[in-house]
């Protein structure tokens, strides 16, 4: 199973439209479009999961393809590093 990053999506894209696009290249196991936590609006990217061979074909065929006037950026998703990030911690700084 491969997870594919799909970037530069038009804000009009739906899970169904992304699924239909990728289904032309094989079996689509899941589609997740990412929305802004605060506003609920689309952030313009998402993820598709497909079997490895289908994913390779989809990436090759769809990277740079136009969707509603926007060239898609498609590649294999990278695992997000865990921990160690972010700010916060402690109270006000005293210099």
TrEMBL record:
Keywords: RNA-binding. One of its GO terms (molecular function) is RNA binding. Residues 67-82 have a biased composition (Basic and acidic residues). Residues 2-79 form the RRM domain. PROSITE patterns: RRM. Residues 62-95 are annotated as: Disordered. Residues 83-95 have a biased composition (Gly residues). Pfam families: RRM_1. It comes from the Bacteria. This is RNA recognition motif-containing protein. The lineage of its organism: Bacteria, Pseudomonadati, Pseudomonadota, Gammaproteobacteria, Steroidobacterales.
């Amino acid at each position: 199973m491969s997870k594919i990053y799909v970037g530069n999506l038009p804000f009009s894209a739906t899970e169904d439209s992304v699924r239909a696009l990728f289904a032309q290249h094989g079996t689509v196991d899941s589609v997740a479009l990412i929305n802004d936590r605060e506003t609920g609006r689309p952030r313009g990217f998402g993820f598709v999961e497909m079997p490895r061979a289908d994913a390779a074909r989809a990436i090759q065929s769809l990277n740079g393809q136009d969707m509603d006037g926007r060239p898609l950026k498609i590649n294999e998703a990278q695992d997000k590093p865990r921990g160690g990030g972010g700010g916060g911690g402690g109270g006000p700084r005293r210099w």
